[in-house]
Design goal:
six-stranded mixed beta sheet; alpha+beta; Deoxyribonuclease I, Chain A; globular
């Protein structure tokens, strides 16, 4: 009996010191999210110049923990053969990256990417379909599962939807097909090419909560008039968002970046 009690005492001490008590409540996690259509790092006012450092400067100024990137070039003629913009931005911001190709472009790839400060434990990319009668550029979604400091996992994804509403609706339905049943908390950022009152945003509103319902316009960068860049989180979990901001940065891209602060209880 004494040996049994001694063993329990040792086990209890190890659990307490190691912070591994099974019923110990998880600490609230706080992090910042950005979504940014980076226009393949080509400032619209700079001709054909590619300025990866300008995009990195915008990101570093805001210090996000996650970034959803759209219009990312990898190994294209216009942005530099052998240049991977997702990898470059990861190096310049001290983050990890994951890229998903949407189309072939100028001998390379063009698509979306994610950056994160947290360890990536899984990743996935899916093509988003277009209707046969409504041909346009192919689209994609990039998603990573990360491990947070308290060892909980979270899915973060970036997408860039089509120009035609029927295609956007089909793409939104496809996203829910892949991620609708996940039990993990999920944040989705992107250029949705859709305004808040559009059918596709109404569709997402059934499953996700936008970080703001009165979001400021994000395009064009000078006197912006349209709100098409959003950050949202999947409903039914412990995620909460606050303090959504549209960053007034008019040089680096043709879209304004958006940030939001999150807590995970």
């Amino acid at each position: 009996m004494k040996k049994y009690l001694f063993s329990l005492s040792i086990l209890f001490s190890i659990n307490v010191l190691g912070g591994t008590l099974p019923d110990q409540p998880a600490k609230k996690q706080r992090f910042k999210v950005m979504t940014y259509n980076i226009h393949h790092c080509n400032p619209p006012s700079a001709g054909d110049k590619i300025d990866v450092e300008a995009i990195a400067k915008v990101i570093n100024a805001e210090k996000p923990d996650f970034v959803a990137l759209q219009e990312v070039d990898v190994n294209t003629e216009r942005s530099g053969k052998g240049k991977n913009q997702a990898q470059q931005l990861a190096a310049l911001t001290g983050m990890k990256f994951y890229f998903s190709k949407a189309i072939d472009h100028q001998g390379g790839d063009y698509g979306v990417a994610v950056l994160t400060k947290f360890p990536i434990v899984d990743s996935a990319k899916f093509a988003l379909p277009i209707r046969p009668e409504l041909k346009e550029e192919d689209r994609t979604i990039a998603a990573v599962t990360v491990k947070l400091p308290d060892n909980r996992k979270l899915i973060f994804a970036s997408t860039h939807l089509g120009l035609k509403e029927p295609n956007r609706l089909l793409q939104a339905e496809t996203i829910m097909k892949y991620f609708g049943e996940t039990a993990l908390p999920m944040i989705l950022g992107g250029d949705f090419n859709a305004t808040p009152e559009s059918p596709v945003i109404a569709y997402f509103d059934k499953y996700f909560t936008r970080s703001c319902t009165d979001c400021k316009p994000t395009i064009p960068v000078e006197v912006p008039k349209k709100t098409i860049d959003f950050i949202m989180h999947k409903q039914g979990g412990k995620l909460k968002s606050a303090n959504t901001k549209v960053i007034d940065e008019q040089y680096a891209s043709d879209h304004l970046p958006v940030t939001a602060e999150f807590t995970l209880d």
